[in-house]
Design goal:
homodimer, 434 residues, alpha/beta, Rossmann fold, 7-stranded mixed beta sheet, 4-stranded parallel beta sheet, 16 helices, 17% strand
């Protein structure tokens, strides 16, 4: 019997991040200053990001070296295995082969640690002592809290009030790593106080928390800001996922017909897909399909216009060209909290506009059905976010059964669902909305 | 730089369980019938266990083959890595090398799945359709629920009422795997109804839940009972942990001076230690120290007498010779719920009496301090149970610093602490009792 897990030795942890920018079919529209509408230069971001990350953000170099210290900490959980989902294939009675890359094996339970470690390292090189960030349900916040601790930085997390109160477990995880966590809106920033003056009972929002974290970083010399998705450099750091997966698929003797990632801001999809897309953009794999699976309740790629918009709700970031539902779009409270973002990463949006990738949108109940089927076949309970990718993979595997095609499908299991048991209960009890 | 993780290919998943019985320095005292006080034969257990497991329980064969179907499912998470805890060593400034076997990587987050899969398989061979068990905090129940699903059996879990109400996440996990869960005491068994008649608000206990599960199994032709620790065959199944670890330590070029497991019923300690103890019992490694680390609040090994006692609170099991605090001992509600058992496995008790192993007992607050130190160095948040092994390892590493000895320490990280965030919060907020 061939192996269930395709593993790589630590020496196969990638030495470089893959930057897709030089391989794009057309150049990216630049980010614009919200006042002048002129393209902004790197210096515009310097108050909140370290220069090393800003240079990665605008780099046209295809390969960007990963520092040894970061690679050494990646050894705690990388290379992550690729699994062949045999029991799921059997359950679906499909001729397709289903593989999944397992980013849920990181200590914090998701792919977010990949970029958190690199961001913390770069800040440390430039003398930064403390990072500020926002978090909704807490996946990104706990990744940055862990990364800061492992790199010896302090970490300040503005956590959306409603999650702070109703989802204590991620908050405690951040605290265990030594981070400071405050419910947002808070009284410690002007942005927070302004909101609280209008509505003392404000439940908060990701947009408000971003404003608070940026204000914190901009106002202190020892502090910078960190973002967990959307930006070019964040997607860049996640490409270690796809690079490892390419080697692993080669070991399995298969090349995927379809690669799938769930889509919120775009980083886990990009992380898996971009290294494969390089082959497509070079013309070597013209038939490769790369699919971003998003929630029907927050359909930035499938329903959003591609236009210049703000990255945050308050409208303080540069304008970015992206598929967006409007920066004031408030997604309904679906359980896949990590996918509740109004826009899509500019790089992902650009590739969609160029026809290089596809997008699909799914309802939450059908997604949870697939999540439960997966757990009952493969043992691992997936994050509701990742379950969007699972659902897409299952649909394509069933299509392959109908057509009799031996498709090779690879998806990204970006996180586990251990913190999401309440959502599973709602689904199992028939109390989940569409 | 040498690797952080020492991994093995799937072909190195053990082919046999290691049975320590034939290597014991003196024979084990037999289990006795509670009425006649005569040694019981295998047939006495037949109403609740399948004959295949009963034969393993009493076997004197050193190596017992693992069925292919079980080995194939082990591939989902085995061989589990051994980590070198470099960051922890540095933090402790110790010349000792600290290694840990990582059983927390299983889909259910602990070593319990190792025996759950083997037990489910054996029952399936004998035509059993359904397994009944008890669970306290839920670690064992979720492992058996997962194993039953993967093997195609039904699963019925009697969950202690107070955990059922206050710890919903493990309950939902079991439900996600398709198990039926009922709060114990329940009205579906005579044992449960008797308790409820006296005390309708009974919070339940592990002892009551065991009685309900045994009654369920004994009363239905399609159902058997499954236990997650204590018995010989359960410890036997866990020896795949130590067998893998021996190969991994060989690859690392080290042989441990000290192996450590936390101790509740004894199965994770035995799983890691027994394959190493074989070398000691053969006289090849006379200096090897095997340490069982238990909570000071439930000190069966360090304070309990070794005598014949019941395995359950109600006194319905055969009498077993073991270190025990008395079958009516009610441990205080410490956070390491998996270690709250009045007795110790007969095999572990026998080895302690023979001087082949040692035991240590620790207070919960010092254990949590070590758990947090570990999480902040290594990233992974450990289960409170496993943190007893971590604390012991840290103490021995600090002793090595004091004496300047380059000790080799190996402990078992039997589970992760993601379900135990409330306990971490109590510790971090200074609200945890000693």
């Amino acid at each position: 019997m061939t192996d269930t897990k395709i593993t790589l030795p630590e020496s196969d942890i990638p030495t470089h991040f893959y930057n897709i920018a030089p391989d794009l079919p057309t150049p990216m529209p630049p980010p614009l200053h919200p006042g002048t509408k002129e393209p902004i230069g790197p210096e515009a971001l310097a108050p909140i990001f370290p220069m090393g990350l800003i240079l990665q953000e605008v780099s046209q170099e295809r390969w960007i070296e990963i520092p040894d210290e970061v690679r050494n900490i990646y050894r705690l959980y990388r290379p992550s295995p690729v699994f062949r989902a045999r029991a799921l294939e059997e359950f679906l009675d499909t001729p397709a082969k289903i593989y999944y890359k397992s980013e849920h094996v990181s200590p914090v339970g998701s792919h977010k640690l990949n970029t958190a470690l690199m961001q913390a390292w770069m800040n440390k090189q430039e003398g930064v002592k403390r990072l500020a960030t926002e978090t909704g349900a807490g996946q990104w916040g706990s990744a940055l809290a862990c990364a800061c601790r492992l790199m010896g930085l302090e970490c300040m997390v503005y956590m959306v009030r409603v999650s702070y109160d109703s989802k204590p477990y991620r908050r405690i995880m951040m605290k265990t790593y030594g981070a400071e966590i405050i419910a947002s809106p808070s009284t410690t920033t002007r942005a927070g106080r302004t909101i609280l003056a209008k509505d003392p009972q404000s439940p908060g929002s990701l947009g408000i928390a971003i404003s608070e974290a940026i204000e914190d970083a901009a106002g202190r010399d020892d502090t910078k800001y960190a973002l967990g998705s959307v930006l070019n450099h964040v997607l860049l750091h996640q490409t270690i996922i796809g690079q490892e997966a390419k080697k692993q698929m080669e070991l399995a003797g298969d090349y995927p017909d379809i690669v799938i990632g769930c889509h919120g801001g775009g980083s886990n999809f990009a992380g898996l897909a971009f290294p494969f897309l390089r082959d497509k953009l070079k013309g070597e794999r013209p038939a490769l399909r790369a699919i971003a699976a998003e929630p029907a309740s927050c359909p930035s790629l499938t329903k959003g216009a591609r236009e210049y918009d703000f990255g945050d709700t308050a409208g303080t970031t540069p304008l970015m060209m992206m598929h967006t539902l409007g920066h004031d779009f408030i997604p309904p409270p679906v359980h896949a909290g990590g996918l509740r973002y109004h826009g899509s990463a500019p790089l992902v949006s650009h590739l969609l506009a160029a026809g290089a990738i596809e997008a699909e949108a799914y309802q939450q109940r059908e997604v949870f059905k697939s999540a439960v089927d997966f757990a009952r076949c493969e043992g691992t309970i997936p994050a509701p976010e990742s379950a969007h990718a699972i659902h897409s993979a299952i649909r394509h595997a069933l299509a392959a059964r109908a057509s009799g095609e031996k498709k090779i499908i690879l998806f990204n299991l970006s996180g586990h669902g251990i913190f999401d048991m309440a959502a599973y209960e709602a689904y199992l009890d028939g109390k989940m909305g569409a």
